[in-house]
Amino acid sequence: MRPLLDSRLDRLRYVDLHLERDCRPVPDFPLPAGFRFVFYQPGDRAAWLAIERSAGEILDETEGAEAWAEYFGSWENRLSAQMLFVEDASGEKVATATAWFHPEISASEGVLHWVAVRRPDQGKGLARPLIARTLDLLRSFGLDRIQLHTQTTTWLAVMLYLDFGFRPTAENARTGREGYQILRTLTEHPALADFPPLPENSLWDPATVAVEEFLKNRYGSLPPCKVWQTGPKKRYRFLQEGVLWEGTYQFSSDGAVVLAEPLILS
Fold first, then answer.
1. What's the mean per-residue pLDDT of the chain?
2. Is the Cβ–Cβ distance between 19 and 167 less than 8 Å?
3. pLDDT score of 105 more than 80
4. H helix or E strand, kind and range, residue 206
5. What is the average per-residue pLDDT within 57-77?
6. Does 39 fall in a domain?
7. How many independent structural domains does the chain possess?
8. How much is the pLDDT for 255?
9. Cα 145 from Cα 139, distance rounded (Å)
10. Cα angle 48-53-57, degrees, rounded to a multiple of 5
11. Are 247 and 262 contacting, i.e. CB atoms less than 8 angstroms apart?
12. 7: pLDDT strictly greater than 60
């Protein structure tokens, strides 16, 4: 049975997920009336940042600029053929995904990259057509495989990726096993039948719980925040009154979360 789902979904344990699929055709999912696909044009960086920020993928402009520089900064000349947007009837860009492929990096594999729908436009039936169109674009490049990197905290999106035939890579099924168990517990998706569900009390990330309690005690309410680990470095970020802060955390010998005092990033 699925656990009772509530606001604690923001406290899900963060596990990196790596999925892949072949390049077989996918069903056609037309956009709802009033929306259309367009490709990236010079100057659309601001629209991409706004969508990703609204969707909760980035916290502020500083973090968005870092992400853009890391993933697209050296390859902006390729985006007019690889980065898609969905525009509404007024011409405003409300969703985006990138069919990432570079023959100098891999001649046979591409990546479904940075899929996001602006929060006010979620639930309007845009994600499935956007994913299908981006997969078709990747297929047109003559690739063999399509990769996808995501995480447990975007579990609703992962359900869509599974519906489109993405499956855990062999290595990630082993290293990220608990992540797929979390998703199995939340979604009961048949593609995850090999991963046994977990007890509800094991779904929540103790570091996120500690960070949220720290921030609520300090500010009286919970600002936008995220908690993650890259290699051995454990970090948390939050946005308070337009200021981006970052701190680190560690686990003590008895398993308690110990937070370092945050510093201003921007």
1. 91
2. yes
3. no
4. helix 206-219
5. 89
6. yes
7. 2
8. 85
9. 9
10. 100
11. yes
12. no
Domain-terminating residue out of 143, 174, 197: 143
Question: CB neighbours of 86 closer than 8 A, spacing ≥ 6?
Answer: 31, 35, 36, 37, 38, 93, 94, 95, 96, 117, 126, 129, 130
Claim to verify: residue 134 and residue 235 sit in the same structural domain:
no
Q: What is the DSSP string of 210-238?
A: HHHHHHHHHHSS--SEEEEEETTEEEEEE
* Residue that terminates a domain, selected from 99, 118, 143: 143
DSSP state of 107: S
Q: Tell me whether residue 191 is in a domain.
A: no
Query: 2 pLDDT exceeds 60?
Result: no
215 and 126 share one domain: no
Neighbours of 48 (CB within 10 A): 23
Q: Are 208 and 151 in contact (CB under 8 A)?
A: no
Return d(Cα 128, Cα 31) in angstroms, integer.
9
Q: Please report, for the domain that includes residue 109, its CATH number.
A: 3.40.630.30
Q: Sign of dihedral through CA atoms 127, 97, 121, 236?
A: positive
Q: Do the Cβ atoms of 47 and 91 come closer than 8 Å? A: no
What is the rounded CA–CA span in Å between residue 142 and residue 146? 11
Please, are residues 249 and 234 in contact by the beta-carbon 8 Å criterion? Answer: yes
141 CB burial (10 A radius; 0-12, 13-18, 19+): middle
- Whether 173 maps to a domain, the answer reads no
Whether residue 177 is contained in a domain is answered as: no
Range of the domain at 123: 24-143
